[in-house]
Amino acid sequence: MFISLTPLKKSKTHIHRGHILKDAVEATRFKKEEIAAKAGYTRSSYYKHIQDAELPYHILASYGKALKFDFTDELPEMPKYVIEEQDTVYTQGMTIGDLQKQIEYWKDKYIELLEKYNKLIEERRGK
């Protein structure tokens, strides 16, 4: 008896997620270690990640946030994630007078502690 099985056709070609990550990192001017650290991983983890054909989407999202890169363009089936931009909040700066007061305060504090230290050294030498 002969059974013929027709091969199943894949609707999409297989995409190696690790290679997509590698290409995105290499397209930047940053070092691999910097990108990995910014994503929350080590350099050795990065190298393991780029070899993983089925790299989990949450890991890709971490690198995407670090790179400010949207992997959902290459992987439409990947859940969307937000590339968070930290809003820099600028507050009113200190005036020059305030800064001079701080300088005087810390200078006086330093001199006071130095005098206490010198006094302690003198007492210990006298014993």
Walk me through this protein's architecture:
This protein is 54% helix and 0% strand. The protein is mainly alpha-helical and 127 residues long. It has two domains: 17-73, 434 Repressor (Amino-terminal Domain) (Orthogonal Bundle); 93-127. Helix 2 (32-39) crosses helix 4. The protein is elongated and about 85 Å long.
Q: How large is the radius of gyration?
A: 29 Å
What summary fits the major beta sheet? none
User: What's the number of helices?
Assistant: 5
CATH superfamily of the largest domain: lambda repressor-like DNA-binding domains
User: Beta-sheet strand percentage?
Assistant: under 5%
Which CATH architecture of the largest domain? Orthogonal Bundle
Q: Structural class of the secondary structure composition?
A: mainly alpha
What characteristic shape results from the CA principal axes?
elongated
CATH class of the largest domain: Mainly Alpha
Can you count the beta strands?
A: 0
Into how many domains do the coordinates divide?
2
* Termini Cα gap: 107 Å
Give the fraction of residues assigned to helices.
40-55%
| Mean pLDDT over the residues | 81
Fold-level CATH name of the largest domain: 434 Repressor (Amino-terminal Domain)
Unreliable runs:
1-11
N-to-C SSE string, H for helix and E for strand: HHHHH
